[in-house]
Design goal:
Blueprint: E1 3-7, E2 10-13, E3 18-25, E4 32-39, E5 46-51, E6 68-73, E7 78-83, E8 92-100, E9 116-117, E10 121-126
Parallel strand pairs: 2-10
Antiparallel strand pairs: 1-3, 3-7, 4-5, 4-8, 6-7, 8-9, 8-10
Length: 127
C-alpha cells in the first residue's frame, strides 16, 4: 500500500511563495514518477508539474513555467513544489500523485497516468 501525504499549503499574498511537500511511504520511492495537480472550485483537476524517477525530466504546465519548480529527494522519499510569484489564480487544492514506474517511462501529464493520490492541501493566494 502506498500513502502520499501533502503539507505546506496555506494563505499567502499575491507575489509570495510557498513550498509544498509530498511524503511517500510504501514501495521504493525511486521507482515512482510523481506529479502535482490542482483543482479550483468549480473547475476540473489540472496538471501542474511532474518529475521522472531520477528527477531528470520535469515538465511544467505553461501557466506555472518560470514561477514553480518541482524536485524530489529519493533518499527522503519526498517530492517538493516550490511556488514563487504566486497569483490569485493559483488558488486551489493541490494534490500529489504517484505512478509506479520501474520501466523508465516519462512522467505522465494527465491524472489517469497516476495510481495513487494524496488528500490534498489548500493553497489560497489573496490579491
Amino acid at each position: 500500500q502506498v500513502q502520499l501525504v501533502e503539507s505546506g499549503g496555506g494563505l499567502v499574498q499575491a507575489g509570495g511563495s510557498l513550498r509544498l511537500s509530498c511524503a511517500v511511504s510504501g514501495r521504493s520511492f525511486s521507482t515512482y514518477t510523481m506529479g502535482w495537480f490542482r483543482q479550483a472550485p468549480g473547475k476540473e483537476r489540472e496538471f501542474v508539474a511532474a518529475i521522472s524517477d531520477s528527477g531528470g525530466s520535469t515538465p511544467l504546465a505553461d501557466s506555472v513555467k518560470g514561477r514553480f519548480t518541482i524536485s524530489r529527494d529519493n533518499a527522503k522519499g519526498t517530492m517538493y513544489l516550490q511556488m514563487n510569484s504566486l497569483k490569485p489564480e493559483d488558488t486551489a487544492v493541490y494534490y500529489c500523485a504517484a505512478d509506479y514506474n520501474p520501466y523508465g517511462r516519462g512522467p505522465g501529464l494527465v491524472a489517469y497516468d497516476y495510481d495513487w493520490w494524496g488528500q490534498g492541501t489548500q493553497v489560497t493566494v489573496s490579491s
